[in-house]
Here is the input.
Amino acid sequence: MIRIILIGYMGAGKTTVGKALAAALGVPFYDLDWYITMRYRKSVTEIFAERGEEGFRDLERRMLHEAAEFENVVLSCGGGTPCFFDNMEYMNSLADTIYLKATPDVLATHLKMGKGKRPLIEGKTPEELEAYIQESLQAREPYYSQAKYTIDVSVLDTFTKIDECVRIIREMTHI
Ligand code: S3P
Here is the structure.
């Protein structure tokens, strides 16, 4: 049974890599943010606005417990998912967890391109964004580093090397 969960900071490429990995393995792909959006019929931004971050984290945890039980899947989480409650321990208990690790510079470049979808960084100037990434990545690293596998995706820069990333993950996990 294949159950892979991708974790990592916003902009690391969890969704892009997850889709390619799932296609290569011939299993469905789920993105936890999409799953939440589908179940609640609301965007992550709307949920943050209505319930605040605390409300979102609560709901995210509940949806994780649904989606992570699926069999033969690749699931990508939100950047904050591993850092709340016992989520990381829970994911490790039932899946091959993979941390897509990237430098703050690479993350900032990706996040500047994908504006508007992420309430935590909405409205930040480039300088503020860079400072925020530095600080929050440092705080999150102890959670991310609990993943069973880590892959450095900084080298994947423009995502042209997705296939290479998929190959490395398959080699590491023997799947
Ligand atoms: C978040 C990351 C987002 C989304 C929410 C909060 C975070 O997902 O869950 O905006 O705390 O890092 P992505 O990592 O897919 O952008």
Summary: The chain has one domain: 3-164. Residues 3-164 form a domain with the Rossmann fold fold (CATH 3.40.50.300). The chain has seven helices and five strands.
